[in-house]
Structures are given as C-alpha cells and as structure tokens.
Specification:
The protein has one helix at about 55-60. The chain is mostly loops. The chain is about 10% helix and about 0% strand. The chain has 1 helix and no strands.
C-alpha cells in the first residue's frame, strides 16, 4: 500500500436471518443426504404434529371423485 491510499471499505452487504423452516447453511450437509423437499415430510406426507393422521384425511379418501378409480 502506498502512503496516501484510503483504507479498504467494509462490506455493505445485508445479512438477514434465514426464514423459519429454511436451512440457514445448506452447503454444510453431506452430498449423500436427501434434501428436505425429497423427504415425505417436505410434502406433508409424514406424521402430523399431533402424532396421528390428520382428521380430514379419512374424509378425503372416502369422498374422492369417481374418475380417480
């Protein structure tokens, strides 16, 4: 550096926390792990937070349209 040079400016990039439900450090996972959207829970197919199936699930299975077979 020369004598009259200005000091280096600090980064002004905004850093915000990750939204709820999003992995704040996605690049720190092993490459052989399944992504969240590839797991059944990511599509709502896992257990409900109460521990059992949703109350509405049985009604949806019973009342499906005729073209669903």
């Amino acid at each position: 550096m020369t004598e009259g040079a200005a000091p280096r400016r600090a980064s002004r990039r905004v850093r915000r926390p990750a939204p709820e439900g999003v992995d704040p450090r996605p690049s720190e996972h092993p490459l052989d792990a399944r992504a969240g959207e590839d797991r059944p829970e990511g599509w709502g197919e896992g257990q409900s937070p109460g521990g059992g199936a949703h109350a509405h699930d049985e009604e949806l299975r019973r009342d499906r349209p005729p073209h669903w077979g």
